[in-house]
Amino acid sequence: MRNLLVSSLLIASVSSPVFAATTEALNYNVINIQADASREVSNDQIQAVLYIEKNNKQPAELANQINTLMNQALATAKKYPQVKVKTGAQSTYPVYDTDNKKLKEWRGRAELQIESRDFKAASQLISELQQNFQTDSIGFSISDEQRSKVENELMLEASKNFQQRAQLLTQSWHKTSYNLVNLNVNTNSSYRPIMMSARTAKFAEVAAAPMAQDMNAGESKISVSANGTIQLK
């Protein structure tokens, strides 16, 4: 959340007569106002988490098996420069026999995290990786660049709405003008991403040329509120 504070008051010592006079003056004709601006914005970024999970009685062999598949996946990802790929959480832990609680085998898991604004390229990469990997989750959000652009536009809109309300109240109280005492501009966003758990469904059946899945990224709501105080004159 971004917070911007605009104040027309001068900070002075409590003992200062100027501060005391200002404080006393603010006891009259003071109104608190809030104005908002919001917009539904199409999600333009995809995030996905894929994982591989293997079992082996020998931990060294298990590590080699997982490392080989991870290296292959990273090599495949290089064909898609539009897609950011990085390794995620990795773990290895023992699996015990439930009857006699003896060590049965070792299980290893490793994750790949995918992020891109190119939905087609990301979908194609995920389809290829699903030959060895499973998809844990897929989500959509607004990119930082798009969010910043929309927030800046909404900050201006919220500020104009604040001024309109301030002017309306000034007229309704039969005053000639007003002074801005302080103004807080806050940005907030609540997105409703489409989260898909793909443990039971794949983007495409394993084939020589995987087909990318069409995606519906949905929308997120970005809001900006301007709240502050005016003094009628």
UniProtKB/TrEMBL annotation:
- One Pfam family name is SIMPL
Q: Which InterPro entries match?
A: 26kDa_periplasmic_antigen, SIMPL/DUF541
Tell me yes or no: is Nucleus among this UniProt entry's keywords. Answer: no
Q: Which domain of life is it from?
A: Bacteria
Enumerate the UniProt keywords alphabetically: Signal
Q: Which GO terms describe its biological process?
A: DNA damage response
Q: Where is the signal peptide?
A: 1-20
Q: Which named protein is this?
A: DUF541 domain-containing protein
